């Protein structure tokens, strides 16, 4: 927002910080408990960041709607209504994510088990921080707006402050070129677009069959892609960093990768290796194969 009071840059930054705290808390707890850390776990923070930011947008949207409906209400009732609308969505999405990753801990691969355990635990902490830490940040940000304080410096903004200064100085340090109102803004243009144009367009009786056809084409393409997909995985990533398998795959890739797959011959019968004639026969067989 261009309004120097209603700008929520710090609020968004705290939403990202909330996801970061969840990652630190979950990783610290599991490392303290001795859960092995493998290289695939390093991808987990990106998943947590995506879900944490999504929860942040849900909370902020519910808070803005509560402000528009109850401009004169106290903070307690505003926060209660925000949680009543947003907490259900956040809880359901978190439960499904946690359930999916904890089911993944049943796998036989230790690296996948560690990844699922770290990620699922991080989702739990992300939910806790969203419901506690970020809710408190919403209230503090609201009090800053009610006090007509600048979004960056938190300094009080007066009606006549910075009139002699440049527009850039006013926007970043003291005031704003677009007004100083701390009251809730009118409905966001994006919300108006979806409500007045996007929604009615897709509920049109001529558009509905087109949407069904497009979804059918998408579904058919997805099924075809699943049938044609070829599995492939770096076996090195499936082993723990301290496993004896890790240096084997490293050396195999460095020294033997250009020779292709190894060919092995297995003798399944009982053989008298003490007999020199038998040993010579095995040697001759090996030379013939070579």
UniProtKB/TrEMBL annotation:
It is a multi-pass membrane protein. The keyword Secreted does not apply. The keyword Transferase does not apply. The chain crosses the membrane at residues 9-38, 44-63, 86-109, 115-140. It is found in: Membrane. Residues 1-140 form the SSD domain. Signal peptide: none annotated. The gene is Ptchd3_1. It holds the Pfam family Patched. This is PTHD3 protein. Belongs to the patched family. It comes from Eubucco bourcierii.
């Amino acid at each position: 927002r261009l309004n120097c009071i209603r700008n929520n840059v710090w609020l968004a930054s705290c939403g990202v910080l909330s996801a970061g705290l969840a990652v630190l808390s979950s990783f610290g707890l599991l490392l303290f408990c001795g859960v092995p850390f493998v290289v695939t776990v390093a991808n987990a923070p990106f998943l947590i960041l995506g879900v944490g930011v999504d929860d942040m947008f849900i909370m902020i949207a519910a808070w803005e709607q509560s402000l528009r409906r109850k401009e004169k209400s106290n903070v307690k009732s505003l926060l209660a209504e925000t949680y009543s609308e947003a907490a259900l969505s956040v809880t359901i999405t978190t439960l499904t994510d946690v359930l999916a990753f904890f089911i993944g801990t049943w796998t036989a691969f230790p690296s996948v088990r560690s990844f699922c355990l770290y990620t699922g635990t991080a989702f739990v902490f992300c939910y806790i921080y969203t419901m506690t830490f970020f809710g408190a940040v919403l209230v503090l940000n609201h009090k800053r707006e009610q006090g007509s304080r600048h979004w960056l410096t938190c300094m009080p903004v007066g009606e006549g402050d910075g009139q002699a200064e440049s527009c850039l100085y006013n926007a970043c340090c003291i005031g704003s070129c677009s007004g100083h109102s701390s009251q809730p803004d009118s409905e966001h243009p994006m919300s108006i677009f979806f409500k007045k144009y996007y929604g009615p367009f897709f509920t049109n009786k001529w558009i509905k069959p087109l949407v069904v056809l497009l979804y059918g084409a998408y579904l058919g393409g997805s099924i075809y892609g699943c049938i044609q997909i070829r599995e492939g995985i770096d076996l090195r990533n499936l082993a723990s960093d301290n496993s004896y398998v890790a240096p084997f795959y490293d050396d195999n890739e460095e020294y033997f990768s250009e020779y292709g797959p190894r060919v092995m011959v297995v003798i399944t019968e009982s053989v008298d290796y003490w007999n020199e004639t038998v040993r010579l026969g095995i040697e001759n067989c090996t030379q013939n194969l070579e």
